[in-house]
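Notes continue from the previous slide.

Worked example: a multi-chain complex. Inputs as given:
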Amino acid sequence: MTLVLSQLFTGISIGAVLLLIALGLSLTFGQMNVINMAHGELIAAGAYTVYVLQKVLSGAGLSLLIALPVAFVVAGLLGVLIEVLLIRRLYARPLDTLLVTWGVSLILQQVFRDVFGAPNVQTRAPSALTGSIHVTDDLVISSSRVFILVLALVAVAALTAGLRTTPLGRRIRAVVQNRDLAAVSGLATGRVDRLTFFIGSGLAGIAGVALTLVGPIGPTMGTNLIVNAFLVVVVGGIGQLKGTVIVAFTLGIVQSMVEYTTTVSVASVIVFVVIVAFLQWRPQGLFTLRTRSLA
Amino acid sequence: MTTLQDPVIAPDPTIQPATRRFGAGTGSRAVIGFGLAAVALFGLAPVVLGDFRLGLLAKYLCLAIVAVGIGLAWGRGGMLTLGQGVFFGLGGYAMAMHLKLTDAGPGQLPDFMQLYGQLDTLPWWWKPFASPAFALAATVLLPMLVALLLGLLIFRRRVRGAYFAILSQALCAALAIFLIGQQGTTGGTNGLTDIQGFFGYDLNDPLNRRTVYFVVAAALLAVLGIAWQLMRSRYGELLVAVRDGEERVRFLGYDPANVKLVAYVVAAGMAGLAGALFVPAVGIISPAMIGVVPSIEFVIGVAVGGRAGLVGPALGAIAVAWARTALSERLPSAWTYFEGLLFILPVVFLPGGLASLAVLLRRRTAKKEVAA
């Protein structure tokens, strides 16, 4: 029983990381139909922000707290830069954004390599997050994992509330649901796009801060993560936050369970087969907006 | 709600060639083109290039074969496949398994299996690859079969566009992780290396390596011929129609899923063939050549050369691979920046690729003539 619980928690914490990454994607890919392959490098930008801040500030705990808003802004501005320079020209060609942002990701990776060096860098976790929590005698979970889970849930709650209640959220939803109607109603859709992209990219920065607690920080740290995060958004349903949340945790748990019963290498194939099978049942993802479109 | 509909592709003249004018030319022009390509590949290159350069060219031509398939599936069919590495890898591994078994001799285990020492006998799924006929057929048919199964599941359920691209990429990641994990039977991260012979010919002999080059060049010409036939046929018109308006084609009574499936399966077969030829040409196949990164790099040459044409993808792939060799050895850092720009600039500013430059120039001179 303990074993199952501990695997369950591993799965949930994999899911929390996936969720943090996929949240930003569900805005840029889900709401704006932009496939941002440079999302992984925005994550790395957030992680390097922690590294730089720790060089400047001495306290690990303080620097992590300051890093959260700073990384949000750094990654967000980087994202807006990409949007303004490149993606804006490609809204009619969503597939091409994928190739272009892949190019951006290559360039950003090389920038990281040239500035911070190719090897992974280290950060110190704050002392409050280095320990672990003994739930029972056998069941031990690490505090940093709990912190990431809480961070992911807070981010989801903030994003949901923001989209539902704030004027900006209302505008974002309006542009997503009917861009032309929003435009003739007097919304500056271009500005809304940029703000959406800023928030989506900023969330990648937050994910990067969280990842410094559990893994190495390196130039290519994001590439390995976003393939699965994209799957989460696709399977959850485009533009559906609740779908993203459910699928992120389900995928995390399935992965940890399958990995435990088989091996990592077999699990990767099984998870893929499960996803293709799932799409047979729900080709548009778990939740879909009911529309009159033929897709 | 606009996001779930088909992307409305702007009528960009450089990206939507009239089939019979550009890319897949008319009969006589095509024959001349094939003739020139054959002269360049079989007459010029072997004379001008030394053994080492010719070997490199053989490798580039393998990548060009993959690119022709991507041009068909993506340029003509609108399916951005980021998973051609899967099919390239299946073809490559099928060929390499056979060659490893031949190198080891009858009844012996391949060297890496003895090295890792986990196995006493050959795994059952290795055994059929001892037969040259089975292995050769598998290099092309196995990728096509996988593409058929996956395509049936995906296209029938109308999963397309970005969803398709992401799924194909995820398959790539899954296969690479799977191969790395099975070190005892697939060679793991190292892959299948150190291939000595090719159907009885010693690959260390420079003369035999030249022969391999000729085989690859012949395969590229054959693949170009197949793609040309497909593009100029009624099927080719239908494929472009599905790319530009899938629902309209459905209402006209065709099943777009089948149309896309054919292009996807053919492209997979071409990638498999390329993988199979890559093994004797380069002497190695490993997960590093079939994962997410190499798979998306297959696409870049196609985008640079011109996705919708016939020769554009092939020439683009060769040019990009050549630039990689030339630049990455001397300036590894600069090459990465350059590669990033290669993804960005042509796609943003020249969606039709370099091939469309020729069309644009021709149009401009035609306009001038009219004005005069």
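Summary box: Residues 246 and 300 of chain B are 25 Å apart (CA to CA). Chain B touches chain A through 57 residues (CB under 8 Å).
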